[in-house]
Amino acid sequence: MEPFMLGGAILGGGLSALGIGSSNKAALQAYKAQAKALITSYNYGLTNLRTQGRSAFEEAARELQKNTINSMKNQSMVEAALSETGVEGRSQDRVMRDVRGYDAMTRVSIKENFERQTYNLKQDAESMYQSTKSQLNAARSQAQSQMTGGFGSVLKVAQGAISGAMLGSEVSKMYSSITQGT
């Protein structure tokens, strides 16, 4: 093998290997940056959902406390009104049962509303998780498709070496024609 041809083959193969390494590195860096952005966005979203959950809990606790205070006031007012009217027995029990029943229905309504909000927040968190996971998998697949490895790398290096050898052969021919011509 001629020295120009050998030099061209080594140079072409080396440059191909260098190009593969740098393109693989760029694809990996792009994937890491995209993954970091997706995970950061997911974490901010999850923090926001947790804040909403705490707010919903605090609101439900305030509503339950307010309802308890109103219920005690209502029961006291009804008891005072009943004692003034002189109603006793079953009628008085029935009125007090209605007041306590209204209190119980309001409590159940507040608790169910909180449970519904909590369920929706959990569903939002799960949806956000699945979406982020899907986007990360797509980014990983894209990065892997852009990277060259294994047999593909060998072929690209060989192709670069052959191209370099052909170029070296041409340079050798030109060099011999120049040196023989003078």
SSE map:
Blueprint: H1 3-85, H2 90-146, H3 151-181
Describe, in plain words, how this protein is organized in 3D.
There is one protein chain. With 182 residues, this protein is an all-alpha fold. 94% of the residues lie in helices and 0% in strands. The chain has helices at residues 3-85, 90-146, 151-181. The mean pLDDT is 80.
Task: Give a brief rundown of this model.
The chain has 182 residues and is mainly alpha-helical. The chain has 3 helices and no strands.
What's the order of the H and E elements? HHH
Low-confidence stretches: none
Total of helices: 3
Q: What fraction, in percent, of the residue positions are helical? A: over 70%
For the termini, the CA-CA separation is 24 Å
Q: Quick one: biggest sheet? A: none
Q: How much of the polypeptide forms β-strand, as a percent range? A: under 5%
Shape descriptor: rod-shaped
Given the helix and strand composition, which structural class is it? mainly alpha
Q: Radius of gyration in whole Å, from Cα?
A: 39 Å
Mean pLDDT: 80
Tally of strands: 0
